[in-house]
């Protein structure tokens, strides 16, 4: 049950919070009737790194461990879920860190960004083609 990205990468959308167009945050493009396409040149690596650095700054005091874009995508997604659950609704960390409070969708999109990064830069694929269920 749920909605998925299928094709050169596989991803289950986080229930009720993640848009079918989430991959566009990292440079993926698609027309209404075609699959999404992204390559190394269009992938916004700086944006992903900024997001991961911000999460790691705010979560460094937690026992879940830090996010590593070179780590196993499934392990990083599980870690993001743990961090999100710990941070969800908590204001104390915002006061301590001075950082913004992350929205659930942002954690979900970082998990997808890591999967895209891994396929393009770790597995060495030239481009990715995939569809996203609405």
Shape designation: globular
Gap between N and C termini, in Å? 13 Å
Strand content: 5-15%
Structural class: alpha+beta
Helix share bin: 40-55%
Strand order of the largest sheet: 2-1-4-3
How many strand units?
4
What do the pLDDT scores average to?
Answer: 85
Low-confidence sequence ranges: none
What does the radius of gyration come to? Answer: 15 Å
Structure description:
Helix 2 runs antiparallel to helix 4. The protein starts with a strand and ends with a strand. The longest helix has 19 residues, at 104-122. A four-stranded antiparallel sheet has the order 2-1-4-3, with helices on one face. The chain is of the alpha+beta class and 134 residues long. The mean pLDDT is 85. A hairpin with a 3-residue loop joins strand 1 (4-7) and strand 2. It contains four helices and four strands. Helices cover 41% and strands 12% of the residues.
